[in-house]
Amino acid sequence: MAGKIIDGKKHAATIRAEVKAQGKDCKLAVILVGDDPASIVYINMKKKACEEVGFDFELFKLPETAAQSEVNALIDKLNNDDKITGILVQQPFPAHLNKNEILTRLNPKKDVDCLHPYNVGLAMSGQGSLLPCTPAGCITLLKREGIEIAGKHAVVVGRSDIVGKPLALMLLAENATVTICHSRTKNLAEECLRADILVAAVGIPKLITADMVKENAVVIDVGVNRQGGKVCGDVDFVVLVKALYMTPVPGGVGPMTVATLMENCLKAKALQS
Ligand code: NDP
Fold first, then answer.
1. Which atom of ligand 1 is nearest to 202's Cα?
2. For ligand 1, atom 5, which residue shows the shortest CA distance?
3. Angle (nearest 5°) at CA 255 between 273 and 239
4. pTM above 0.90?
């Protein structure tokens, strides 16, 4: 019997309604350097979510050739603008810019993506109020579906700073036993087969196939890939036959990332008051 598809769109809509119900004045500022088409799609999703929850939104565009000093000056301006609750610098940045300099320049209390090293440290030690949106969205999905995490063996494939690594730490904080896999993992299939909760955050279409998934596992697919003109995840969807629960792509983790960003704006507002 096929597993249950976790409806990320539905949970995200509930979260947006909860955020809206708080009736807070927030403003999200997004900085885009260049005009990467995928970034523009993601920014539009964030703008739409802001409109839906009643937040102001403003996009600050800089040309692809913008100097580090221009980006820094814009961040300083937004850091000092009391009307701005949250600042997000859309990634990827052009290669000539220094990512660490950008992230450490953000006012940590406005860092709604939770990328400033101060917030990363707080999140790692379990003291963070602001948590990175995609991993926090995954944990929320599991909790809202009533899926037990404590005592489970979670396998996270991918160890990036924005998804894999923080999600592994959050699962650990929820008392899962956690394995992290990456491009140098020797036997990925063997590791994945041990997972009660399997997370794929890699960026390779259908990397995870049915033979790599244990019967009745919970499968969270973070990947967003384009294949043959269609969006697909890192997990072959036929895995649903073996899984107890599985997130679809699109419509799983993606909407939760944006909904969590809205929650983070509220948290940032509270930190600033
Ligand atoms: P990165 O490219 O930063 O990281 C990919 C990770 O996958 C790395 O740790 C890499 O290992 C690992 N990896 C690469 N190849 C393999 C392999 N063959 N076997 C096992 N591990 C491998 O990607 P991100 O973490 O930023 O994103 C991952 C995916 O999630 C992408 O598809 C992205 O589009 C999507 N995403 C979706 C979001 C959403 O809201 N739904 C938000 C953010 C990302 P190593 O470290 O050794 O190089």
1. 7
2. 202
3. 140
4. yes
